[in-house]
Fold this protein.
Amino acid sequence: MSVPSPTTKHRIELTPQALPPAVPTSVDELKIPYVILENLMLKQLSAYPKSDVLQLTQLMAIGSHMVEDLLAGLRKKSLVEVFQAESSSYYTQQQSGHVRYGLSEAGMYQADLAFKKDAYLGPAPVSLDDYQAMVEAQDVRANYITRADVTYAMRDVYGAERMIATLGPAINSGRALLLYGDAGTGKTYVATRLLNSLNTSVYIPYAVYAAGNIIKVFSKQHHKAVAPQGQEQSLSYKAQYDRRWVLSERPSIQVGGELTMDMLEVNHSEHNRVWMAPLQMMANNGILVIDDLGRQPVPVDTILNRWIVPMEYFFDYLALPNGQQITIPFILTLAFSTNLDPEKISDPAFLRRLGYKIEFHPLEQNEYHALWEEMAASRGLTIHPSCYDMLYQLHGLHKVGFYPCLPKDLTGISRDIIVFEEAAQIITPEILERAWQLYFTADGKGGGAR
């Protein structure tokens, strides 16, 4: 089976779905309490002593005139000191920004208090209202896709053409999905490629201010910037966008058996008191895959009940560290993946709330054969023709389906054997049988397929 080729409709570059956030020209337009900005400035000066206005402008991601106003206010409170440039030459003054700023003794004390209350250090946060408006403007349901879009997104997935007719409407609906089937049938692999069909990028804030708390949203672990920040050199506000936002690919976040309920609430680590957004907030305008449903340390009913209100009304309630509660948009594709029987692990009422239930099956033999050839070639190996007789005998003997994970895993083990034995770069029946025995347990069914 050949892999579908990209259509001419698609471009390599992603196009932002929403208009770029305008650059704020005053502190009032930031919609953030002034004291929050002052505390953030104190923390920046504590972390980066003797910074000039240009450096602080880059760190805070706000206009230089707002930085100067904040510094002037802190100086009046005797929290900031001014350090003149070491050289009096015009060139040195130009390079240094004329003066640099540092904390006074009183300023260092206030900065310590600010860090104890909130350890966030980064660009100024955006308001909850601005965040909600942007998430709604980037709703996947406002940018419907067609069969060509999904075909392009699944171009490297064998057997995908049998699911395209279901996956396309599922993405357009914006509703939750249930992906189920045997381990190794490609459920997670397909889920992580769903967003490739959208061809749009989104703006994600570094942090959001809500009811007295700064919540960090952008994470390099979960978000991928489309282009490095800070490249805009134009002095015109019209040619820029608010640098408190990052233009990124749509989020694709996956969590499996390690999922705990704490991950779905505003929380922080033991060593870092920065309040982190929950997984569903980080995944807004993208996809959140709950993998291996039924294998988490918490009961399935607890996990599923957590999503009833968000799935129904497209918003979520979050409890903040200070005891207050906020409402955030829940505009994402939520996908549950399991290799267990859905009827046995979930309540029928919950199953009815899931918009689409998609069953995954093993590959057809011709697809499986083509995938073996591709995986072997990617490792610089060839497959002896007689190998396939052995391969299909093993499948029949142990009643193992043609799972798409097997060619990748077994060619990897075969490669390890060939390198160790200093043999020719050919997978022979003998090497294949050794790889199979190493991969599966004695009954031939206990491999590491997922």
Summary: The chain is about 40% helix and 15% strand. The chain has three domains: 33-123, 128-360, 365-439. The radius of gyration is 27 Å.
